[in-house]
Design brief:
heterodimer, A: about 250 residues, alpha/beta, Rossmann fold, two-stranded antiparallel sheet, 7 helices, 11 strands, about 30% helix, globular, B: about 425 residues, alpha+beta, four-stranded mixed β-sheet, four-stranded antiparallel β-sheet, 10 strands, about 50% helix
Chain lengths: ~250, ~425
Amino acid sequence: MSARVLVGVKRVIDYAVKIRVKPDKTGVVTDGVKHSMNPFCEIAIEEAVRLKEKKLIKEVIAVSCGPQQSQETIRTALAMGADRGIHVDVSGKDYENLGPLQVSKILAALAKKEDVRLIILGKQAIDDDCNQTGQMTAALLDWPQGTFASQVDFQEDSLKVEREIDGGLETIKIKMPAVVTADLRLNEPRYATLPNIMKAKKKKIDTVKPSDLGVDLSSQLEVLSVEEPSQRQAGVKVETVEDLIKKLRDSGRI
Amino acid sequence: MALLGKSLLRSKFGSYVCKARELIVNQRRCIVSCVDPSLGLTEEQKEFQKVAFDFAANEMAPHMAEWDQKEIFPVDTMRKAAQLGFGGIYVKPDVGGSGLSRLDTSIIFEALSTGCVSTTAYMSIHNMCAWMIDAFGNEKQRQTFCPPLCSMDKFASYCLTEPGSGSDAASLLTTAKRRGDHYILNGSKAFISGGGDTDIYVVMCRTGEKGAKGISCVVVEKGTPGLSFGKKEKKVGWNSQPTRAVIFEDCAVPVINRLGEEGQGFLIAMKGLNGGRINIASCSLGAAHASVLLARDHLKVRKQFGEPLSNSQFLQFTLAQMATRLVASRLMVRQAALALQEDREDAVTLCSMAKLFATDECFAICNQALQMHGGYGYLKDYAIQQFVRDIRVHQILEGTNEVMKMIISRNLLQE
């Protein structure tokens, strides 16, 4: 199988970090805070590497959009088994405005440029929880999508994707080229091994600019403010059911 | 932020006890800045460290209490670690090792130790034995013994100490008399980590005259007639590894199993210990690191006299001193590792200094952290007591801290 797979990996604040909001309310504190690969992106890389090990696909390309530090995330992907990386250099104001629409335009352009048959992404990032990039990328490319995948079966030129939906599990068949987004139970990502970490050093990471891909990064969204969720208020205990009804009526709840 | 369903976070309910366990598991990923063990490392070393931390948090920390209480030797978990390359970290790649440096090794053991000190310490002994065969064995010995050790298909033990010779190691009495193409071993070794459960024994025995020059190093395989084991010792800590006496009664070992030349055994043993001392000190670092984080979190949560303990200046200052001594210990250990891998002339003394300093300081740190937990620190539901118990022995083995002082003073007073 000569297929190439593109996997998007996002550098996000580590899940174990206690998030603090910046005093000027423009966002959360990211300076000096520990970052790592988005956990759903880890699952996406793992799936791609497993497909390569089964010899169903030829090459796994890891992509990340962001500043210089995004290369660390690509290195982790290489250590897990990706063959090469592409770093799309986005920094400063452009990086602050980088959202699913911009990223999906970039991924769509790269998919065409690298002649990719399958894009695997995490279902969402744990910082913005957008859950949009996979869907938008598929729409821009006019490719079918299998989102919230908990199982992917690779067939000659189509995929059988089992999806986790509100009602349970849905299995669909989609033709390739396609976009798949990984859900939690798709697989258990492997640890990078020491030899693979060392081999990853020798693997190539190409850097490109969004302008090289003809992508316009302007955003239609403006973040007005970022605040902490309001503190939980203390409850009130009441003596009788009548008191309860009265209180609910007084506060306009019923 | 989406709640990540990884198994670590599944027990986010109810009691304070559950919270303590969860804190251990999360905090070992280490977010606090001044004691961050990744400061000053290269990108690649940070990657190694990350794998080790993740492995420790996911595969070891959730089980460390059970392994301690039930005295389980976690063979499967160690084999998983070996698959990642942790079975022969500084063994050459042509025989299955990872070919990393002493500093890389120290970083890895420090991170693994936050998951379980006892298991990591055993793995470091295993690594030391694998290296001794790799460095001093001939091609046939390397090809025979190293690959299964690096994959942890087979486990190793280091046999130097005897009932009558601990610090005075060169006075060991186990004899190896040449008879044709075998050595006949007679004697016994004491306090052997892994003894009875491991497959390969790297044994220092007397082939020649009295003293260090008469000692040779041979590899004995389990199942050799004449090789038997004493009862499993009951220990204060290090309970995830069995400790037994190793007994030789007319045990015939092929001469081709001798590492290096006759009379070279003591040198091989000491060279092995240089790295072993850095590794043990690294295990102490990991325990102290985990303990500082546990203490820090406890101080923020526990309230007395109407305030969290973290408002008490005495406790703030104590925590600051603990953190400072931890970072100082870490620097000593890493410096010694660098000196050893660069083969500097001060390497042996630096390794001794690092082992002395780090094991003493880190025990004091863990002990202080236990004190900060108050009564809870004494309960086995809390990990802090296990760190204290497990690292106490680091001040004793691989050369007591008194012997470390002997080595250092000898270096200072030499002409």
